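Hey all, quick one. A colleague (J.T.) asked me to put the uridine-5'-diphosphate-glucuronic acid job into the tracker so the inputs and the structure tokens live in one place instead of scattered across chat threads. No bug as far as I know, just bookkeeping. Sequence used:
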Amino acid sequence: MPSAHYQALAVEPQASDDNDNDEEELVVHWAANLQPSSSSHNHARYHKQLATSSGWEDRLPTPGRGMAPRLSRRRYWMLLVVPLFIVCYFVFSSPLLLGQAGGDGDDDDANNFEPHNGIGKRRHQEQILELREFLQDHSFKSGILYGTTAHALNEPLLICSDSSDDHRLYIQDKPRIAYAQLPIIYFVTPTYPRREQIPELTRLAYTLLHVPRLHWLVANDQEKCDTFLDTLLSGFGIPFTHMASPMPSKFRKSKPAPRGVANRRAALLWLQQHNLTNGVLYFGDDDNTYDLRLFSEIRQTQRVSMFPVGLIADYAVSGPVVRDGKVVAFLDSWVAGRRWPVDMAGFAVNLAYMSQYPNVNMPYKPGYEEDLFLRSIGLRIDQIEPRGNNCTDILVWHTQTKSKKSPVVNVESKYLDGRSNLGPLFRSLKLMGVASASDTAGHAAVISKNGKGRSHSYFLS
Ligand code: UGA
Ligand code: MN
């Protein structure tokens, strides 16, 4: 495929990260098979650092100065071997190369990872190779990552309904007007049709009803607009946009599939199209549990804020490690070479900051959505704002609802008329994707009174 068809996943140069990031940069650049131009740029930077810190500048020809005096043989070897040793140490001890999740490197624990993102329990090494392949499939050109899975945010965007009106008179204990000066939180919720969709969205809506200055972007993973959703969402009175954003069919069958990615990409596109450079973006899945304090914590995000998410994978938690008020590392049981091993619900982004990265992207790369998204907005570890009492509080939980297939219930259609509530009830359950009635198939509907089931005609004819 011609690469011009695809657009960029911006990966900003990580100029002044801490040592850990530099170390990772080295490996990532190696893995990504850098273009000669950028590699020579990096080489120049590295060369310069080496020269300044070790006295090598004395050996470099300087205009108008000629060659400096020769160093003694012993010093020469020291200067050559010590930096080489340091570079080798960092490169070979990197988890990216060794495939270690950290800790004792025991294959049975840390190197296997927990399938919290649906990837399944696989060896860490395999994941590293996958990430390397991904990075190899892409090429860096002036800080931008081009490649086959990093499509431009150019999927068709189907807006089903939207409203910027806030119909709530009071929020928490104050009139809505009292919050007028607050930055808006754009709360992006990917969702998809299944039996649990309406209950999940209902529960979430009743949380969001307590949050002032919030625009709810609900992106549904299906081709067509769902009119039931239109009605449901507009009934809450929260400003919202409902869009249809189906996963491209080629990904639908892949295991694992990139869940919620088309939806979030659609929301990113919507934000770009509306030129929104004020406010805060948060990706909030439909099945998580949100503490109301989360919203006050993320609202003042200057660039990117981060905080722990409860109930993630093997440790039942994932989030930043904070020392002296600064994020210094991450705790997550699935590292897999990710620079930003965080959950989608574990960070928020300021829109003014994000708008500086027009190539913002979230590639269809299961398990790496957060990492690659955060790479595309040029995040540096020293820029991260730890929230939730320096990442000691859990303000969001990765709860998961038990999923079941929608059942077919066997009720004769002649009884689903206006004589009882059952007609409208089953029509509504059908619209919500919860259950459907059938004349011929499914679980026989037992209708009972006083502990005794009787024929349908007994009650309904
Ligand atoms: C975890 C993370 O919490 C998600 O943010 C991340 O997208 C996901 O892993 C992943 O990387 O696959 P998890 O609970 O495992 O989430 O996944 P789901 O809750 O099933 O899906 C994430 C979001 O995508 C949900 O809001 C869900 O409604 C939506 N989704 C899921 C779709 O839009 N389409 C689907 O086919 C499946
Ligand atoms: Mn989930």
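Adding what we noticed when we looked at it: The CA atoms of residues 221 and 246 lie 4 Å apart. The radius of gyration is 27 Å.
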